[in-house]
Each structure stands twice: as structure tokens, then as C-alpha cells.
Q: What sequence folds into this?
């Protein structure tokens, strides 16, 4: 019981500290922003640990963070193999194929007014559907290995990418396009020098949405059948064995992979679209 | 009307492509069945055909094309097979029947709606807190944004099993996953909306010596409504995905996700496809309802187009 009380005392102290920093003089600095969110996150972790230990919560319901960290450190080879199978082979290859396919389709749609009026409403519609549901079909077609996961990811990222790239290619004004015409630029020159750069903020928006979708697709597809390696496989079998520390370790891997994936895309975005207002002045 | 023509043509083209794709996808089993029924097929023997390309087989056996559209467990069911299955399992079955898609759809829909309401209400409340307290903003907001980059769906199986082990079953675990998935989009969108009034508008409220409560109800809240609806549309689609995925890991026997899962266990492809279309129709209907509410609300507020 003392541990639980300690947890709430810690919460009060950390919150008081955060309020002081947030309303203090230096609250606009980068250090204060990082510090406040870090204190909040750490407090939650420590409270989790204290409450789970204090109330004696059974391990099959919620293991404490230290135990998850221990399991994480103790099974690095397994986690790494799962990571390679699910993220590198399944999600990344599907992501690349899906984005390239969407890019090619977007160029076609861009060149033909008929396709834009016909395909885009369909694309918008499909982008809102629960495409994860195609996983059982694709697993049946392409087998249990990573190819079927990549296929699910392709289908999942294709439509959001298509919608975003097409919207981005509409971004230029009539005057800018006329200017290119005045310079006797061909379609491809106009695309390469004017419209693609202008489309980049939209393209990266799509790439960032798709990075999360790709991981979700690859993990969920493994629930429908997989070889005996992979994050989705490990999660569903460990849940069956009530080895919740392993499940949490996989979730830590998924969280790291997800934020790293997103971070890399966001970093490239900052380098490529440095001219855009949303990227300046920070 | 100008939009409708091209859309219909594209949809017709997709259906036509689908029919064409059925032939090579199903040709192997169709040939085996035809051979067993005594029809002459060119290369004889399933073992010979196994390694041959599907397109070559299809071109060499044009007389079995009809069979590829009418199999029991095709690799790719033809559109009309899916449509017939959808019709039979929705209209012709009693809705209490275990084989009725409406029965399964309702199981999933109820979890989706409960989760969506919980997630949205909690999301709006957290957003209000974030806008009012700087400390809360700086503590919670980075985590709310970071959590969107994480494949949250991965924890769905665990939530189901853990709640199951403490005796909570049925609708609630799925609803929690749904709530969790719709929570963060609503928080992020609502914070953006509550912050959308410009400095000039906020100064105007101060000129009228409005209290912060009045500013909230008369300026911030109305200004946030368009943002709220945009994130509700994302949230309800995410809720549905959450409810469906929540049905996968425990081998649930009821709900659209369970239809997908049992279909894939027993190779009932027509059942998978009809469940898939049912989820698509459900998702489209839910988003359309929210969009309709949005239009009506914005119109009554005088900002609709």
C-alpha cells in the first residue's frame, strides 16, 4: 500500500514541478518543452511500476516496466529476427512498392482528365475503407511468408498515397503553369521543375500517414497466418501463452520502429521541403 | 452528373477486370473438376498442369471459362458470386441466424459505436483540458502526437485476453480498442480547433470583457466544430477497424472480423469477400452519417456551403 501512496505522492510532486516549469519564465525554450514531456512520461512509467508492485497485480494482467525491460534485453535475438521479418521484409518492401505504384498511377491520372474524374472519387472512397480486411485473402494468395504481408501493405498505402499525390499535383496556380508554357516546357519538364516540387508537402503528408499504416498492415496480416517468426506472430502466440512481458517487449519494438520510421520520413521532409512555411521558423 | 459518368465507367472497368482475372486465378481447380466430370481438357493430369502458367492454361481451354465463375471455393470469387452471397446472408436469412451478415454486422457495429462515443467524449474532454492548462498541454500533447506514429493496433490481442482473464467479455473489450483508436485523432483535431480563433478574435472577446468561460462557449467551441467533424470522420473509420481487429485474436465466433477469420480457416473465400464488402459498406455508411451530421450542423451554424 505504501508503494501506491508513494506513486500518488510522486504524481503530485511531478505535476507541481511541471506546472512550475510550464508557467515559469523559460517555458518557451526547447529544453523546457522537452523536459516537461519527459517528466510526464517518466512519472507515468514509475507510477505504473509502483502501482503494479504495490497492489500485487498478477503478471498475466500487467507486468511492471522493469520486467518488460528485462525481457526486452534478454531476448534481443528473437526481437531482432521478428523486426527483420515484419518491418524490413514485410512493411518496408510493401511501402516502397505501394508508394511507387501510387506515384505511377498519379501521373497517369494527372495526364488524363477522364481518369481524374472517374478514378479519384473511387480512390477517395477506398482510402476510407478498412483495407486491413483484405489480409486473409492476400495471405491465401501469396502464402504465409513476408510476400503476403508486403501485398497487404501495398494495398493499404496505395490509396492514401494516390489521393495525396494527385492533390499535390493540383497545387500549382494557372499562372505558374502558363509561365512554364511560355518557356516552351514539355509536360515532363513542367512536372519535374514546377509541379513535383510544389506537390512535395502533400507527398510527404501521404508518406507519413502511410508509414504508420504499413506497420499496422504488416502486423495484422500476421494474425491470419505467418511463418514462426514475426512481430504479429509473436504477439498472438505470446498472448496465447499469457507471456505478457514478451507481448509488451514486442510492443516496445513496434513503438520504436514506428516512431523511427516516421522520424526518418519527417527528417527527409524537412530537407526536401525546407521552403514551405510549415517547415520554417523553428 | 458530370462526375457520375466517368465514375461509373471506372467501376464497370474494375468489375470487368475482376471477371477477367477470375479465369487464370481459378483455372487450375476448374480444369481438375472438368477432367473429373469427363470433359476433355488439353494437357491431361493435374500433376502436369501444376507447373504450367495460368494464362497459358486459360487460353488453351476456353471451354471451361464458364466453370471458373461458378466454383464453391474459388481462389477469386466472381463478382456475382459475392453479390449473391451478400444478398442471401443479409436479406434472405433471418437476422437472428448465425449465418446472417446483419447479425454479425450488428455485433461489430455496436462495439464500434460504444467505443467511438467513449473515445470521442474522452478526446474532447482531454482537448479542453489541454487548451486550458499550459502544463497539461506541454506534458500530454507530445505523447498524443507521438502515439499516432505507433501501430497501436498491435496491442489489441493483449487487451482482449487480459480483459478476458479478469472476466470482462463480449462487447466491452472491443469497444475499448475502438475507443483507443478514435481517441487520439479527436484529441489532436479538437486541440487544433479550439486554438483556431485568431488573436484578433480573442482580443475582441477581451474588449467585451468576456470571462474565459464565455470565451470558451461563445468563441472557441463554435470555432472548433469543423475541426471536430473532420477528426470524427477519421475516428469512426478507425473505430470500425479497431472492432474488427479486436475480433481476430481470440477466435471470436461472432462479428464481421470473426467471419473473416473463420472464412480464412476453412478456405471459404466467398464468405471472406462478402464479409469484406459488408465492412466496406458499413464503413462508408458510418462516414456518410458523420458527414451528413457535419453538413446539417455547419448549415445551422451558418458556416456551411
A:
Amino acid at each position: 500500500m505504501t508503494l501506491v501512496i508513494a506513486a500518488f505522492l510522486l504524481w503530485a510532486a511531478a505535476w507541481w514541478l511541471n506546472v512550475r516549469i510550464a508557467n515559469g519564465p523559460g517555458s518557451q525554450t526547447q529544453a523546457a518543452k522537452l523536459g516537461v514531456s519527459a517528466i510526464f512520461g517518466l512519472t507515468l512509467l514509475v507510477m505504473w511500476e509502483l502501482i503494479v508492485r504495490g497492489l500485487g497485480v498478477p503478471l498475466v494482467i500487467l507486468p511492471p516496466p522493469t520486467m518488460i525491460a528485462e525481457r526486452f534485453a534478454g531476448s534481443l535475438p528473437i526481437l531482432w529476427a521478428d523486426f527483420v521479418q515484419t518491418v524490413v521484409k514485410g512493411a518496408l518492401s510493401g511501402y516502397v512498392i505501394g508508394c511507387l505504384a501510387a506515384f505511377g498511377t498519379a501521373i497517369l491520372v494527372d495526364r488524363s482528365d477522364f481518369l481524374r474524374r472517374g478514378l479519384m472519387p473511387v480512390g477517395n472512397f477506398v482510402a476510407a475503407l478498412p483495407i486491413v480486411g483484405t489480409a486473409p485473402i492476400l495471405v491465401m494468395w501469396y502464402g504465409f511468408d513476408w510476400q503476403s504481408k508486403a501485398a497487404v501493405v501495398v494495398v493499404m498505402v496505395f490509396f492514401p498515397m494516390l489521393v495525396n499525390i494527385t492533390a499535390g499535383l493540383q497545387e500549382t496556380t494557372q499562372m505558374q503553369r502558363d509561365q512554364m508554357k511560355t518557356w516552351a516546357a514539355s509536360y515532363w519538364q513542367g512536372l519535374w521543375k514546377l509541379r513535383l516540387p510544389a506537390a512535395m508537402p502533400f507527398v510527404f503528408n501521404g508518406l507519413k500517414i502511410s508509414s504508420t499504416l504499413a506497420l499496422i498492415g504488416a502486423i495484422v496480416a500476421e494474425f491470419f497466418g505467418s511463418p514462426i517468426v514475426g512481430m504479429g506472430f509473436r504477439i498472438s502466440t505470446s498472448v496465447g501463452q499469457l507471456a505478457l512481458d514478451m507481448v509488451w517487449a514486442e510492443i516496445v519494438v513496434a513503438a520504436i520502429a514506428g516512431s523511427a520510421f516516421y522520424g526518418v520520413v519527417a527528417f527527409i521532409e524537412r530537407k526536401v521541403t525546407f521552403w514551405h512555411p510549415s517547415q520554417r521558423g523553428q | 452528373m458530370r462526375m457520375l459518368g466517368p465514375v461509373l465507367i471506372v467501376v464497370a472497368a474494375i468489375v470487368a477486370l475482376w471477371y477477367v482475372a477470375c479465369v487464370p486465378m481459378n483455372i487450375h481447380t476448374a480444369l481438375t473438376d472438368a477432367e473429373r466430370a469427363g470433359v476433355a481438357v488439353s494437357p491431361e493430369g493435374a500433376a502436369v498442369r501444376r507447373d504450367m502458367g495460368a494464362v497459358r492454361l486459360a487460353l488453351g481451354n476456353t471451354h471451361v471459362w464458364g466453370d471458373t465463375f461458378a466454383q464453391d471455393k474459388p481462389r477469386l470469387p466472381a463478382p456475382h458470386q459475392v453479390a449473391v452471397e451478400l444478398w442471401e446472408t443479409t436479406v434472405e436469412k433471418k437476422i437472428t441466424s448465425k449465418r446472417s451478415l446483419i447479425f454479425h454486422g450488428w455485433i461489430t457495429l455496436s462495439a464500434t459505436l460504444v467505443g467511438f462515443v467513449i473515445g470521442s467524449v474522452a478526446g474532447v474532454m482531454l482537448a479542453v483540458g489541454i487548451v486550458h492548462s499550459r502544463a497539461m498541454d506541454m506534458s500530454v500533447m507530445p505523447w498524443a502526437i507521438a502515439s499516432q506514429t505507433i501501430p497501436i493496433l498491435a496491442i489489441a490481442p493483449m487487451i482482449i485476453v487480459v480483459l478476458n482473464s479478469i472476466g470482462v467479455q463480449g462487447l466491452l473489450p472491443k469497444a475499448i480498442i475502438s475507443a483507443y483508436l478514435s481517441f487520439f485523432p479527436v484529441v489532436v483535431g479538437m486541440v487544433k480547433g479550439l486554438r483556431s480563433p485568431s488573436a484578433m478574435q480573442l482580443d475582441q472577446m477581451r474588449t467585451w470583457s468576456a470571462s474565459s468561460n464565455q470565451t470558451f462557449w461563445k468563441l472557441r467551441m463554435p470555432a472548433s466544430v469543423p475541426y471536430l467533424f473532420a477528426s470524427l470522420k477519421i475516428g469512426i473509420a478507425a473505430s470500425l477497424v479497431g472492432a474488427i481487429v479486436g475480433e481476430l485474436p481470440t477466435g471470436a465466433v461472432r462479428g464481421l472480423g470473426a467471419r473473416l477469420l473463420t472464412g480464412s480457416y476453412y478456405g471459404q473465400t466467398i464468405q471472406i469477400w462478402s464479409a469484406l464488402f459488408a465492412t466496406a459498406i458499413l464503413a462508408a455508411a458510418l462516414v456518410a452519417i458523420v458527414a451528413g451530421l457535419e453538413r446539417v450542423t455547419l448549415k445551422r451554424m451558418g458556416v456551411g456551403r
About this structure: Chain A touches chain B through 65 residues (CB under 8 Å). The longest helix of chain A spans residues 76-111.
